[in-house]
Amino acid sequence: MSQKRVLVVGATGYLGKHLVSELLKQDYSVRVLIRKESQKSLFKDVEYLIGEATKASSLNHIAENIDIVISSLGITRQKDGLTYMDVDYRANANILKESIKSKVQKFLYVSAINGDKLRQLKIFEAKEKFVDELKVSGLDYTILRPNGFFSDMRDFLDMAKNGRVFLFGNGEKKLNPIHGEDLAKVCIEEIDSSTKELSIGGPDVLSQNDIARLALEAWNKPEKIVHLPDWIRKVTITLLRTFTGSKTYGPIEFFLTAMAYDNIANCYGERSLENFFKSEVFSIHNSNK
Questions:
Q1: Pairwise CA distance, residues 255 & 199, whole Å
Q2: Is 116 helix (H, G, I), strand (E, B) or coil?
Q3: How far apart are CA 54 and CA 83, in angstroms?
Q4: Per-residue pLDDT tens over the stretch 127-148
Q5: Beta-sheet strands, E only, within the chain
Q6: Helices of type H across 190-243
Q7: Contact, 107 vs 131, CB < 8 A?
Q8: Can you tell me whether residue 75 is helix, strand or coil?
Q9: In this structure, are strands 140-146 and 165-168 parallel, antiparallel, or unpaired?
Q10: Nearest partner of 251 among 137, 88, 116, judged by Cα
Q11: Contact between 191 and 66 (Cβ < 8 Å)
């Protein structure tokens, strides 16, 4: 069987780097889209194309001779004057147009867990608008919906460093975050699947209280978890929507809303959040020596 050629969009992001690394390990031929020449040092043994996903005119032939497109392109915190609609929707739509033009075999898109159920949030409004477009594109596709990344759980670790973790409500809402490397492997497994949508999480389903305890233990701190009334969370979201723009409230709105739900995805992977926290604290201690 000939080597499949994969275009990775969003390759310089957290998940994108893991995707490129895993694709190369599995002997795929990899092309990546980068924004500037200096990013060529990020990867070896890949083909680089320079372009701006938000500028359709810079993407001509980007998917030419490509079999599979994987996009993890999106922004968590808006910057450079770009909005969620600019990047999570329009930039991906530009890539999709080129993919259709070049008749790629399949397009895999990384959205987020429950994005289809929380379309009222600014970040999901854009992501799901693209999902809608992908579904009617005529291309074979898979929508991947990962739970939170281990890297997102650093907020717990940052609070725990000061000896106390603050949670809204009783802290019993559950989730199973996943390591980027484990997620990348699952994404690549889906290249040859017929699955249309898949939720993806890590191996351990944990409550927010569990995560807080693991974070405090990693710092060798006594268990101090403060449960704030849930009305504070709701009022905070309302105030942010009223008095700030989406650039400010978007990521906070997403985080505070997600904390009010169970977010349990299909379990995959081997890496534990406990070991990730311990490794992070070890690195911090070493960097301070």
A1: 18
A2: coil
A3: 11
A4: 999 999 999 999 999 999 999 8
A5: 5-9, 29-34, 47-50, 68-71, 106-110, 140-146, 165-168, 174-175, 197-201, 206-207, 225-228, 266-267
A6: 208-218, 230-243
A7: no
A8: coil
A9: unpaired
A10: 88
A11: no
35-55: average pLDDT? 90
Question: Rg of the chain over CA atoms, in angstroms?
Answer: 20
Write b or e for each residue in 92-102: b if 16 or more Cβ atoms lie within 10 A of its Cβ, otherwise e: bbbbbebbeeb
| Percent helix, strand and coil across the chain, each to the nearest 5 | 45, 20, 35
pLDDT tens track for 97-119: 999 999 999 999 999 998 888 88
**Contact criterion met (CB below 8 Å) for 67 and 6:** yes
Is 176's pLDDT higher than 60? Answer: yes
For residue 123 the two structure tokens come to: 């970040």
CA–CA separation, 263 vs 125, rounded Å?
A: 18
Lowest mean pLDDT among 95-109, 116-130, 244-258, 274-288: 244-258
Residue 247 pLDDT grade (very low, low, confident, very high; cuts 50, 70, 90): low
3-state secondary structure of 18: helix
